[in-house]
Design goal:
Blueprint: E1 16-19, E2 22-28, H1 34-46, E3 58-63, H2 68-74, E4 85-92, E5 96-97, H3 103-113, H4 118-121, E6 124-125, E7 134-139, E8 142-147, E9 154-155, H5 180-183, H6 191-208, E10 209-210, E11 213-214, H7 230-242, H8 244-247, H9 256-284, H10 300-308, H11 311-318
Antiparallel strand pairs: 1-2, 2-4, 3-4, 5-7, 6-9, 7-8, 10-11
Length: 320
């Protein structure tokens, strides 16, 4: 069975197909390839027990050497694009979608998967944390989460596009990136952005699925986000954070413990967004004009503790 992945934003449009346990996608010829990034990620994981089980296991891959620009030239297309894309085939072990889980099961797989944020510290940013890339598998009667699909990822020493490159799946991108400055490449991608994407993913799955089944459109409160431009989506997300009472689902739509955790997480995101807004406002009228307020990553453990220290996190963690 073939299907398209959710729309992603990158400097060049990427299209991904899946068939069984195989994935076919067009990647930029001048980027570090996904197999090379996965080898680097595996190397990092082998030295850290907390993440070694959360790395995709690549069984086989192949790269077709002729870029699309060469194909266009051979077909006589006038002024073919230089560089172009190349076709990759990747075969991995069987993985299951995280959207099949809910409540405590979803939370446990999701929170353990965040160990992969370590890769950002070691120079490998995923850049597309989204529900379609959150998978899991069974190991020793336990569900193990996998952050999959590294086709938009980058390494700190990449010779090609990186740093301020605009990538991701819009509804799950960090608010800091869903701004005019973010879309102009003036906001550096940091690993706290991937952490925020994890939070939006949990909210999206919890509010859009019930018992692993996608809810009817009228019951999916965030659906519109997937149809908007990046900046428009950012504005909608900010409106959502400032009007959570109006957005709250009924008791029959979601269990109370999960909703309490979502509210705690939304409050953290709102406070962080407000803090960045006022920091930019102050810098625009001072000698620091033009400096990025997020030019350096804060301590990830301190950022994560804002979520893990919440009452909602504690309740879900101890839930049987």
């Amino acid at each position: 069975m073939w299907f398209l992945s959710p729309a992603k934003r990158s400097r060049r449009n990427t299209v991904t197909f899946r068939m069984g346990w195989s994935r076919f996608f067009l990647g930029e010829a001048n980027r570090t390839s996904e197999p090379d990034i996965l080898y680097k990620v595996k190397e990092i994981a082998e030295a850290h027990d907390t993440v070694k089980d959360h790395v995709p296991q690549l069984l086989w891959h192949h790269k077709f050497m002729n870029p699309t620009s060469a194909v266009q030239e051979a077909l006589g297309v006038p002024e073919p694009t230089t560089g172009g894309c190349v076709l990759y085939i990747l075969v991995s072990r069987k993985l299951l979608p995280i959207t099949k889980l809910q409540g405590k099961e979803l939370f446990d797989v999701w929170r353990h998967m965040q160990a992969t944020l370590l890769f950002g510290r070691k120079g490998s940013h995923h850049r597309d944390v989204s529900p379609g890339n959150l998978m899991w598998y069974w190991k020793d009667s336990k569900r193990i989460g996998i952050l999959n699909d590294y086709d938009l990822s980058s390494l700190a020493d990449d010779p090609g596009p990186r740093g301020n490159e605009r990538t991701g799946t819009v509804p799950f991108m960090a608010l800091d990136l869903l701004t005019k400055e973010g879309q102009l490449g003036e906001v550096k991608h940091l690993y706290r952005h991937d952490l925020e994407s994890f939070m939006w993913c949990f909210a999206w799955i919890s509010l859009h699925y019930e018992n692993g089944v996608l809810l009817p459109r009228r019951l999916r409160p965030l659906d519109e986000w997937a149809t908007l431009s990046a900046v428009a989506c950012g504005k909608k997300k900010l409106f959502f954070l400032n009007n959570m009472t109006a957005s709250a689902p009924s008791e029959s739509d979601i269990d109370g413990v999960t909703w309490d955790f979502l509210v705690d997480s939304f409050l953290v995101l709102k406070r962080d967004a407000d803090e960045l807004y006022y920091l930019r406002l102050k810098r625009s009228s001072s000698s620091g004009e033009g400096q990025q307020p997020n030019a350096q990553d804060p301590d990830l453990d301190a950022v994560l503790s804002k979520f893990t220290g919440s009452e909602g996190w504690a309740k879900l963690s101890t839930l049987e």
